[in-house]
Amino acid sequence: MGLCNSAKEKEEEEGGDTVIAYNHKKKRASEIRINGRAIEVRRFGDWQVWRELDHEPNWAEVANIIPESCILLDGFIPDDKDIEEWLFGEELCESVDGCTVEVDGTCPHGFPSWLIALGIA
């Protein structure tokens, strides 16, 4: 499990306490948050309870619970506006860890574009 810092400005702007769990084996990303005693997850749409605990977890505990194939990253799942701009814009978009890449590319750190991670490209 690794931890990478990105999207701090967006986090402050939206006021959320979420992280991205990128599964490099499945090549997909999900957003994770702690909600009381529950660890919730979403890819698109509504939040769903992934794991309910008998206590309120912290992020270190979440990092130890997620599958070994996942890497935690600061940030948010892109919204529809971002995705639309990437699809119909300049053929560049953001990678899962915040680098600028081609829509069907990966960054120097090995992370794919959001369009790949979300199964769009």
Give a summary of the structure in a few sentences:
With 121 residues, the chain is α+β, with helices and mostly antiparallel strands.
Write the layout of secondary structure elements.
Blueprint: E1 3-4, H1 8-14, E2 18-23, E3 28-35, E4 38-42, E5 48-52, H2 59-65, E6 70-74, H3 80-88, E7 92-94, E8 100-102, H4 114-117
Parallel strand pairs: 1-6
Antiparallel strand pairs: 2-3, 2-6, 3-4, 4-5, 7-8
Q: Can you offer a commentary on this structure?
A:
This protein has four helices and eight strands, in the order βαββββαβαββα. It has 121 residues and is of the alpha+beta class. It has two domains: 1-76; 78-121, no CATH class. The strands form two sheets. The protein has a six-stranded mixed sheet with strand order 1-6-2-3-4-5. Strands 7-8 form a two-stranded antiparallel ribbon. A hairpin with a 5-residue loop joins strand 4 (38-42) and strand 5 (48-52).
What descriptors fit this protein?
121 residues; two-stranded antiparallel ribbon; alpha+beta; 6-stranded mixed beta sheet; elongated; 31% strand; 4 helices; disordered N terminus
